[in-house]
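[step 3/7] fold_predict: job queued, chain A
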Amino acid sequence: MEPTSDDAIKFGEDFHILNGTEQDYRAALEIAQAQHEQGLLEDARFDDIREACLRGIAEACKNRVPRHAAVDMVNEPPHYMAMDGSGLECIDFMKAMATKEEFRGYLKCQVAKYLWREGRKDEGKALEDLEKGEFYYKRLIELESE
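[step 4/7] structure written:
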């Protein structure tokens, strides 16, 4: 039987996560990851919950209103959006798939990458490189305050 977003809600109900919002699915996934790492959740059950949470996140993101009318190559580059029209961004998918510590490391590496390559890849886009580094730095700050 294929897991559904209802499976994530069912899992979340045990932890008082009831609404089925993007944050609810992220919270359910974080709880499941912690339990799995502690050996309290079997691999197969964890895989089902993770799958259901990722689908729930994608579903919750479908109706996300774009923050900018014009193409924003720093904050919402179109090539990092899911092709299925769900509104799910690559960075959100990566966060859902990784532990908090893994995602923290990813963000730190992205900051370093954009500072390192500032103006080297495309001389006319040095400011864009710095803005991209800032984007990941802000996400790192948000992660630390969660």
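[step 5/7] annotate
The chain has a mean pLDDT of 77.
Residues 43-61 form the longest helix (19 residues).
exit 0
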